[in-house]
Design goal:
This protein has 125 residues and is α+β, with helices and mostly antiparallel strands. It contains six helices and four strands. The mean pLDDT is 82.
């Protein structure tokens, strides 16, 4: 894949927003990690907080980033553009469009935050 010149990177978690959902997701990660269905959540967050290597990358990387839960994404973007994506997903906002930067299947193969960081650096100019 060629590097993209982008306006921002949009990360969409396969989880809904809200405190109740966050608590349920954390419990799911602990009690049944093999069935947890958000690899993006899993590799960027521990049970209670953001993973250090991810936070360091996120706070120092030179591109704007937007982080949304799937319900927030659908409210903010899908109604405007009719996008249909599987989640989790990482998108690139390029020329007023959203392009897939890392699809769900690819995210699901990443072992950790460092692999995600390396893939983003590889694909983003």
């Amino acid at each position: 894949m060629e590097k993209l010149a982008l306006e921002k990177i949009v990360f969409v978690y396969n989880a809904d927003s809200g405190k109740r959902n966050a608590i349920l997701d954390s419990l799911h990660k602990v009690l049944q990690p093999s069935t947890y269905n958000c690899k993006l959540c899993d590799i960027t967050f521990g049970v209670f907080q953001e993973k250090k290597e991810w936070k360091d990358f996120r706070t120092t990387y030179g591109h704007e980033m937007e982080f949304l839960h799937k319900d927030e994404f659908k409210k903010a973007y899908a109604s405007k553009f009719g996008y249909r994506f599987s989640f989790p997903i990482v998108l690139a906002a390029v020329s007023e469009n959203l392009e897939v930067l890392i699809n769900t299947e690819e995210l699901n193969t990443l072992p950790d935050a460092n692999a995600l960081i390396n893939l983003i650096r590889e694909r983003v100019s």
